[in-house]
Specification:
Helices cover about 35% and strands about 30% of the residues. The chain has helices at about 15-30, 60-65, 70-80, and strands at about 1-10, 35-40, 50-55, 85-90. A four-stranded antiparallel β-sheet has the order 2-3-1-4. A hairpin with a 6-residue loop joins β2 and β3 (about 50-55).
Length: about 100
């Protein structure tokens, strides 16, 4: 599993539409067998900041399989207006850190 983080800066005038767009897009994202989970968060201290967190089966499944799928095309149709608002889009591998 891999975790993708997308960090957006969204102007106040676009925030309601951004949230609605991701709400619509989420259904198509979750239809994909490569997407394990999804969440979208808005920063409390700076309301212009949003984080989208997506768990994928693997980076290859996300970048090579999902992005060629019908689910991606439907998902992207809802969020493409916000591509230029992305500050960061990266994949992270979870570390198993245990005390001791």
């Amino acid at each position: 599993m891999i975790v993708e983080y997308l960090r957006y800066t969204i102007a106040e005038s676009q925030q309601a539409d951004f949230i609605k767009s991701y709400h619509k897009a989420a259904g198509f994202l979750l239809e994909s067998t490569y997407c394990l989970s999804y969440e979208c968060c808005q920063c409390e201290e700076d309301r212009s900041q949003f984080i989208v967190r997506i768990e994928w089966t693997s980076p290859e499944d996300h970048l090579q399989k999902f992005r060629k799928s019908a689910e991606f095309r439907k998902f992207f149709s809802h969020i493409k207006a916000y591509i230029d608002d992305i500050d960061e889009m990266r994949h992270y591998r979870q570390l198993e850190l245990r005390p001791g």
